[in-house]
């Protein structure tokens, strides 16, 4: 019997040794492929630099031949700057060459990213956690650096658009990094608690985010789910700002009678964003929202509790006093996932206290002579004649988080979403039927952030200034509006 056990154990050890050998071979192969990808990218960068310099030379010769000495000087300066600091030229004549440069480097960066991800994955399988961490840090440094700087051209319209493009790239990269940080923090917490199943799921989520720019699979983690939603909102907001920058450039060139430039920017906008107007028309990539409107009705929706300080007019719902509040009949939203949408018209007013709009969760009560709702967490929005600041606060002005600024009168939308313990608040300027957030903020754990909330006092409420146009509450269990 003992001899049999010895033989069986020997076989198991042999199999284990073979598996270790195979994993080590795969890790070495992945490391070798990574080195090849690094060398290939370095050579591609040299080729891209050379091609851009050829484009510089062609434009310089053409300008010199045409006697355009005023245009030649900045072009020579930008070539010198590129060869010194790798700052890409921003003169319109160099735009096609810069576009080709970026496309070629994007392709090689994608290949290098895939090689890094494979090497990191193999290192993790071999339990070489420190090697994997070093490669991940190197990957981020090489591939996720700051956007390439752009030299001013003296054309104010063009320069503003280039600045908007750079800001868009930076915002999208920051949104991805913020999501990655959440995944990493949850991964660390899962490892510390010894939850192997969750560790493996989060590792897969992290690797897919790094390689394909999205989290794939069925990851049951409310904090990460909320972070994914916030990233999507941030990307939409960034793209909305970029669309507006394109539209401003098109309008500017048209007014300046530079029709060819306006047409070129229009073509670029269509290629980058699409033809739809995502800034104000209510079309585009935003979400169409159907509200329970206050206009055209004699009473508020049945799921809300009325107030003697509220009245409905042909324009919408208003409050006669700053303490006037309408809230839900149900006070159990702490234990429910939901989406709470409110559309209101922000107006300029001299009545300072009544000018403040408040939309939030909690009691929404001014009891005890307080100037702000107590036992509540809410979006506090100053009127245009104030400073127009939009901030998330709790119990009055506690722990303010600035979300946006609404300095001009107009119709805007607020969305508060709860997934698990995470609450995300989003703000959409100039709402016209389609929700595309301009700013968003997530509170990872509302119970920790607002410990005064409980199972009996967590209402949804609206209060204060402005004219409320409509409201909608969707519970995740019903998938339908209240």
Question: How is this structure best described in words?
Answer:
Helix 1 (2-66) runs antiparallel to helix 2 (69-85) and helix 5 runs antiparallel to helix 6. This protein has 482 residues and is α+β, with helices and mostly antiparallel strands. The model is unreliable at 15-20 and 275-285 (pLDDT under 50). The chain is built from 9 helices and 17 strands. It has a 7-stranded antiparallel β-sheet, with no helix packed on it. The protein has a 6-stranded antiparallel β-sheet with strand order 2-17-7-12-13-15, covered by helices on one side. It has a two-stranded antiparallel sheet with strand order 1-14. 49% of the residues lie in helices and 20% in strands. It folds into 3 domains: 17-143; 156-285, no CATH class; 288-475, Jelly Rolls (Sandwich).
Give the gist of this structure.
It contains nine helices and 17 strands. It has about 475 residues and is an alpha+beta fold. Strand 12 (about 410-420) and strand 13 form a beta hairpin.
Features:
49% helix; 482 residues; Jelly Rolls; 17 strands; alpha+beta; seven-stranded antiparallel sheet; six-stranded antiparallel sheet; single chain
Number of domains: 3
**Second rung of CATH, namely the architecture of the largest domain:** Sandwich
Structural class: alpha+beta
Q: Calculate the mean pLDDT score and round it.
A: 78
Name of the level-1 CATH class of the largest domain: Mainly Beta
